[in-house]
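Team,

Forwarding the record for the chain on the shared tracking sheet. I've put the sequence and predicted structure together so nobody has to dig through attachments.
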Amino acid sequence: MFEIRTDQRTLALQLRDGIRLMLRQKDYHAGDRLPSEENLAAMFGVSRTTVREALKYLEEERVITCRHGAGRFLAYDPSGILREDVTRLQSVTEMARGLGIPISTKVLDLRLEPADEALRRHLNLAEGEQVYRLERARLAEGETLIYSIDIFPQALVKGEVREQDLTTSLVEIMERQWNARLVYSKTTISATLLEPDLCRRLNVSPTSAWIMMEQVNFNEADRPILYSKDYHRSDKFRFNVLRRRR
């Protein structure tokens, strides 16, 4: 039986991620038929109702297609683009895990420095307060997919910040070790190019376009505790958002 993670999302959303991971682990290709609802329910230990809800999400995201009378099949995506719900607040590590991407993390820089005026405004800090600036690259099969900058107050940290510990999820470290839980973020999304020097460091083309998410992340007390910029390769990622007419 496959295991799905236990978190605060609905079981159907967790199962959606579990099915996506299964498709990658079992090396499904475009046009391959998925197991039946009954088989998926047995594999994951959930009800068929939950399976149908999860499959509906995957159909809406164009990960799978439904052929009436024949079953569900892995959709054809010639560009190999990875799709994710942009309204869901999660770390890069959590996103990659949900998409089934085996990524590695390379720490490019970690330093402690005074917060400048812009950071003091973003993180509601007083003059003279220090922040950690963490710069990382996320790679799959040696290729950089995501470039990240995370900045957080020194006062937030409990214990020592070591570079070797930051190849995992920063959000999980914050929540488990520093008792600092992210609840929501204010996000700006834009398209951008990276500076030539940075492209050389990341070994990416200087003409590649990136989807940049600039975020101020808040805790339960509505206090900003993390400022981040995540750059995603636009030829590899698409982000979905559900818009409603009000």
